[in-house]
Design brief:
Number of helices of chain B: 5
Radius of gyration of chain A: 24 Å
Strand content of chain A: 15-25%
Shape of chain B: rod-shaped
Strand order of the largest sheet of chain A: 3-2-1-6-7-8-9
Number of strands of chain B: 0
Strand content of chain B: under 5%
Distance between the termini of chain B: 68 Å
Oligomer: heterodimer
Helix content of chain A: 40-55%
Number of strands of chain A: 15
Structural class of chain A: alpha/beta
Largest interface: A-B, 34 and 32 residues
């Protein structure tokens, strides 16, 4: 199948949506599809993957204190038109079409089988809501809608109208299975890991430090490995003086080092106290074959199948967390049972599986388009320029 | 003179807008029709697959007679139902499928495994016998496609209805006699015991 994907944000600026489109494109190519991605590109010097077609530079637009990089102008519109005409796509797949972006610009000129994925989990800005009557006729051309999470689906239902099929983000299972542990880790005394912003209270580092303080005196070899951006010194001060050399703070880590981080610990802990909508990091830990302990937030409970593939403890309860950790540290059999259950679960979230679900949406939408009565001949034929 | 120009300009603008609005409605009707036709196609496919499973199960004595007969009857009723009875008939078929599929014998005498756990994602599961397997594959494909087709149809109906309800569209009867379509509401959750099917992704 010939698939045309449209990325609304610059290809050379790392971001969640861009990474999603890259991974999806590569998984679809792996499945044997012919894929082309139309994306804004700011830096002409950067080498691009063969499947990316540049649509021009973006213009920074200041709005509400943040800067959005958007594509405007006749040149981008012409490139989008030519890409559509020369692509002969069996299905066009836009991302985040609710915002003014390259996706909207392409949608304006497109017809035929169209799928769109909605990524935003928060309600649209007021400016975009005000524009919505103008965008609605365009959004009506989309025959199949996908949301990346239940939260994103809620946004579609409440702010765009209609419904969406939920297909979650994927995980590169194979990428997490490789990687070597950091030198000297996990060691024989046991190692516990934390990953996430250390200056964001809802990530729950304080709960884990409290639990570590309860376990450490009785377990002289036990160590804590902390990865994530934030003020390292502030966290170090929260640790009792005698334990400071057993808490290692890595700061911000690269994607590669994230894989190594998981390989370096015996147990990964997600002590979050709120604000999580899905918990993809738990899946990454499972892909790395690291046992998971997590607070019992709803999002985590549903990923962990109510404790079957990872141990859980009441949100914010450091004593309970210490109990669960002690139990797991002393029981390698239980740890390997969790690893096996996690590996089985995460395979359903591998990009190859996610791409298959997306492929089914493509098939469904192509069927809708194929059954549509032919379009009446327009009174005024559009000129074939560009 | 100026007045004439203004009136002509206004008429042109209004006519252009109405033409565009009528075209938009046309597109929406086409989308709804296409979505409905593809939903119907999947429903027909599911009914046919269910009838085949019922017939095979009855012939091989794989199901209690009552369940096999109920499935066959529900499949026939769904494929012959008139417009008004379609939803209840499809719902009955969903229910009959849940009961029947869960009762089919697999490797351990049960499709969903002895401990009630769903089969692994690798789709290894029931040694449903070699003749039954393709029938169940077909059933599973139809069941999962109905979920998508129904969602996309209801979305199309919703978008079309929103434009239909505009005052201008109603006053000027821009939609003509074409109905906006009505939502199709059934329980389309595929039977849990079919989670391991189709055994291989159709290419």
């Amino acid at each position: 199948m010939r698939v045309g994907l449209v990325c609304p944000y610059p290809w050379d600026v790392p971001g969640g949506v861009m990474a999603h489109i890259r991974d999806l494109a590569e998984a679809l190519i792996e499945l044997g599809h012919d894929v082309s991605v139309l994306a804004p590109v700011d830096d002409d010097e950067q080498p691009l993957p063969a499947y990316v077609v540049p649509a021009g530079r973006t213009v920074p637009v200041r709005y509400n204190g943040s800067v959005a990089r958007l594509v405007f102008g006749p040149m981008s519109a012409r490139r989008a038109r030519r890409w559509l005409r020369e692509g002969h796509f069996d299905v066009l797949h836009l991302h985040s079409p609710e915002a003014l972006s390259l996706s909207q610009m392409t949608l304006l000129q497109a017809s035929g089988p169209i799928v769109a994925t909605f990524h935003a989990a928060n309600p649209r800005s007021r400016v975009l809501s005000a524009l919505s009557p103008a965008l609605q006729p365009q959004l009506e051309k989309i025959q199949g809608r996908i949301a990346v999470s239940l939260a994103a689906r809620k946004t579609v239902v409440e702010h765009v109208g209609g419904d969406a099929i939920v297909i979650p983000n994927g995980v590169h299972v194979a990428a997490y299975a490789g990687g070597t542990a950091l030198a000297g880790w996990p060691g024989s005394g046991g190692a516990i890991g934390f990953l996430g912003r250390i200056d964001e209270p809802r990530k729950g580092i304080a709960v884990l430090l409290d639990a570590f303080g309860r376990l450490a005196p009785d377990r002289p070899g036990l160590r804590l490995l902390v990865a994530g951006p934030g003020n390292v010194d502030e966290v170090r001060e929260q640790v009792a003086a005698g334990l400071r050399d057993r808490v290692v703070l890595l700061g911000r880590v690269s994607e590669e080092d994230k894989v190594r981080f998981f390989q370096s610990v015996d147990i990964y802990v997600a002590p979050n106290t709120g604000g999580e909508s899905f918990g993809i990091v738990l899946l990454e830990a499972m892909a790395a074959r690291t046992p998971v302990v997590a607070s019992d937030l709803d999002a985590f409970r549903s990923v962990l199948d109510d404790g079957r593939v990872g141990r859980q403890f009441p949100v914010g309860d450091a004593a309970a967390l210490a109990g669960v950790l002690a139990d797991l540290l002393d029981d390698p059999r239980q740890r390997s049972a969790l690893v096996a259950a996690g590996a089985e679960l995460v395979s359903a979230y591998d990009w190859s599986a996610v791409a298959c679900s997306v492929e089914q949406v493509y098939e469904a939408v192509r069927l809708v388009a194929a059954q549509q009565p032919p379009e009446p001949v327009p009174l005024i034929r559009p000129t074939a320029d560009g | 003179m100026l007045v004439v120009v203004a009136v002509v300009a206004a008429v042109v603008v209004i006519a252009t807008y109405l033409t565009w609005l009528a075209g938009r409605l046309d597109r929406l009707h086409a989308r709804t029709d296409g979505a409905r036709a593809s939903l119907d196609a999947q429903l027909v496919r599911r009914a046919a697959a269910a009838a085949a499973v019922a017939e095979y199960a009855a012939r091989r004595d794989l199901l209690p007679k009552r369940d096999a007969r109920a499935l066959g009857t529900a499949a026939r009723a769904a494929s012959t139902a008139g417009a008004g009875e379609r939803e209840p008939a499809e719902n009955d078929l969903s229910r009959a499928l849940h009961t029947a599929v869960a009762g089919l014998p697999g490797r351990d005498g049960h499709l969903s495994g002895p401990d009630g756990h769903l089969p692994g994602p690798d789709g290894h599961l029931p040694d449903a016998d070699d003749d039954l397997r393709p029938l169940l594959d077909d059933l599973a494909i139809a069941a999962s496609r109905i979920v998508l087709a129904r969602r996309f149809y209801n979305d199309a109906v919703r978008d079309t209805t929103a434009v239909h309800e505009r005052r201008l569209v109603r006053w000027l009867r821009l939609a003509g006699h074409a109905p906006a379509g009505s939502f199709f509401e059934i329980d389309d959750t595929p039977p849990e015991a079919l989670a391991g099917f189709p055994s291989a992704q159709p290419r």
